[in-house]
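Below is how a single chain appears once it has passed through the pipeline. First comes the sequence as given, then the structure the pipeline wrote out for it. We keep one example in the README because the format questions we get most often are answered faster by looking than by reading.
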Amino acid sequence: MANKTISMTQLKRIIQLKSEGLSKLSISQKLGIHRKTLNDYLFKLESTGKSYGELLKQSESDLAELVFSTNNTRTADSRLNALESRFSYYIKELTRPGVTRQILWKEYKISQPDGYGYTQFCEHFARYNKRNKATMHFDHHPGIYLQVDFAGKPLFITDPQTGEITSCPVLVCVLPYSNYPYIEVLPSAGQEHLFGSLSRCLEYFGGVPRNILSDNMKQYIRKNNKYEYKFSELVNQWALHYNTNLEATRPRKPKDKPTAENNVRISYLRIYARLRNEVFSNLFELNQRIMELVKQHIRMPFQKMEGTRLERFVNEEKPSLKPLPPEHFVVKHITWGKVHMNYHVFLGEDNHRYSVPYQYIGQSTTIIYDEQDVEIFIDFNRIAIHKRDYRSGKYTTLDEHMPEKHLKYKETLGWNADYFLSVAKQIGESSEKVFREVLASKEFVEQTYLSCKGLKRLSEIYGPLRFEKACTRALKGSRVNYGMIKNILEKNLDQLQENQRYLFTIPEHENIRGKKSYE
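Resulting structure:
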């Protein structure tokens, strides 16, 4: 609808896109603003006498006062006819080696000092080319574009406990000029994970390209057809935060982003093939391995050019990237839930449960979460924080949140012979022998676990040194058990000197009968 009032975010996006040199048609399509409405706002912006860079630095109140003033009137521009008379010459000149629009504009400004600025020069030139159906070949320039695509084939992680296999989408990003890639496996292709990954991609590159081109992803395209698309409000906020411009290709036109498509194919050859026999239990391990393979890939020489992707990126493209903003862009969500009797709250989006201290059972909580963390609050007090876990139907439980009885039960789940022997080895050689004899004393080893737990408890009460001495003394007997070790420690028999141990035994004498006396 023409003459519709736009939001301040849209106005700042218009200024940002014009500062990047985009045409009115492109801006109208990206922001979903009627051409007449856009023309009116651009006229008001230009009539302020300030550059688009200066306007972008204005506060919202100052910008509103400058732009929404009703004193502006449109005046005819006599420079256009003079400029259009040169365009046929410019088209021929652009076919010559090394000639660019900027060079032609500089020559134009020398002959016409009062002529159009570079942005308007390109705008009118683009309109002329469209009217005359002129076509030009544009090579990739450093720092101008980042192409983004999801690989058609997923990668997989395997739950080490259940063996369950989960497929995960793979995002492939590439700078076309240097063919420098960024590849990451995501928990899902959802909006939150996509923009989190794009933010990490820009941090990995150490800068921001002027444009980001992808296909018509439903994660940020609200309206999608051959001639028009509209971005969501979140997308505009993300683009404004990073001072970049998101673009979408035509539906079902993969050749609009050929470099990304080619890098997906290369990823199959140099990454997927290498991973086919490897098993990963979580995304961190998988992405760490992928980054190792990517680092090998960027150091491989080009087949048809000199150098490597890494050298071309570091030497030529990275200096052309715009600086990163000082703060990260974080998408946070909020929901609410009651603490269940199992002292967990439920995060419905992931179908996952997180523990809180059991003292809060039955109370209502506020759950604030982003791509990485889950924080749980009661009023304004945070009672728990967890790393976000995307496994559906699972529990994330911290020991400090459990009642004492539950902790003891959990401890029994880890009992086995190897566990108790590992405990004994840390104490001493005699202790290990005692534990081995106790474990072998029953037909079923599980029947000895309580005795072993008692021995472990004695070592904690009396200390490892006394426990080791008590075990050394007990091994002199014909058999060993928990009661014997306990008796030695309680009566301090382990503290006796070697020469005192025989004061309480019957001395040798001639009246003692042997077995021969009974033959």
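The longest strand covers residues 381-387.

See the next section for the split statistics.
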